[in-house]
Fold:
Amino acid sequence: MGIGKHLAKGSPKPQLPDDGVLRFYTMRFCPFAHRVHLVLDAKKIPYHSIFINLHEKPEWLTEYSPLGKVPALQLVTAEGKPALIESLIIAEYLDELYPEPKLFPADPLKKAQDKILIERFNPVIAAMYKIFVNTEVSPGAITDISTGLDVFEKELRSRGSAFFGGDKPGMLDYMIWPWCERSEMIKYLLNNKYEMDKERFEKLLNWRDLMIEDEAVKCFYLDGETHAKFMKSRREGTPNYDMLVNPTKRQRTC
Amino acid sequence: MGIGKHLAKGSPKPQLPDDGVLRFYTMRFCPFAHRVHLVLDAKKIPYHSIFINLHEKPEWLTEYSPLGKVPALQLVTAEGKPALIESLIIAEYLDELYPEPKLFPADPLKKAQDKILIERFNPVIAAMYKIFVNTEVSPGAITDISTGLDVFEKELRSRGSAFFGGDKPGMLDYMIWPWCERSEMIKYLLNNKYEMDKERFEKLLNWRDLMIEDEAVKCFYLDGETHAKFMKSRREGTPNYDMLVNPTKRQRTC
Structure:
């Protein structure tokens, strides 16, 4: 998947072929949109990416996303060409419509338990954001991240599998991955003052190494330094959405 | 369904029969727990209610709900007797396990669209809470409630049905109902300074009248005055969880 310029206020609507292919309104560095990229790529569903400048949004964005947020996925072959929003809702919809490979467990109880774990990852997200967006380090944030991740280390130990989904990534793996990938930027933002405890997070660190080798993860992977570079531009109030438009060695494509 | 005393710090675990019946950890006035009561009652699923004092929580609550929240639903017949948390996750699980009547649309797209609307109700919840819990009226809150409800009025008009679910309530109806029921307490909290605009919310007001007559809604219904009485006790820092333990005329039971 190539990466296009992020469309901004004043940008005309993109002219896309009438080919029945899903249209995905996204932003290259948005972790919530990243969730949906992972599901689309894991299922090898074709889609057109329309990259959006979230700082200066194009006027027509609300036609597809009433609150002007990404991700939004337009279903061009459904009646009225509706668009779906909310990463978890889109992910579950895609899992129902495109069951190969099935990402949520088929068993309703196991599925509900994985959804609960996705919700229980929210405190990790909140703590990471304190570090990502604030130039002053919030003292409890690192502790909160570790406490939040303890739940997932324990879960992985209890499941006894490489991934939460078993011998390959499932929905839980993909839904928490965007922030796990971005956790690598913390050392750049905090000048190397952060590293995950190798004993405390033995299983999770092994999981991370395996996730990076997953085909869907590779499709949209960026290293910590690149994520940090974007985040620093965002902190300065001038997010550099298009910093990867001319692909560099850090930008892998599928 | 009768109402028991809310168990508090120091309360022993309730002794329940080994009858395979679901065990539901709830609180009589919690709107999130209310969502699950509605689904259980709409599907006529038997359950034991264990009422929890959320101000002084029983020590054993975290065995069933790791974050000490309600609702939590314990599946006593599943291996390990696990408990589920998060109202929407429990609701969807119950809809999969007990399909009669099906509350979410069977079509994945319509289901996803209803889930998006449930998410879009969150600003209404947030605005209502500003009024419920604060003794000083937040000036924009009433406007925010109306703006949020416009989405639902418009949706109901566009669907052209009495309920969001069609000719009877579906999941979207039940998931937003707890706060719609509680909106009736605003006039008591604001000394009659609040009434919904009869033209602007014509369809929603008709919907509300019909919802009150629904069997599942009746099972757990309380009038605005009763909700306001509880909320005032909560505002004073001494929530009167047990104010309905001796049923009054306002407490209907199934």
The mean pLDDT of chain A is 94.
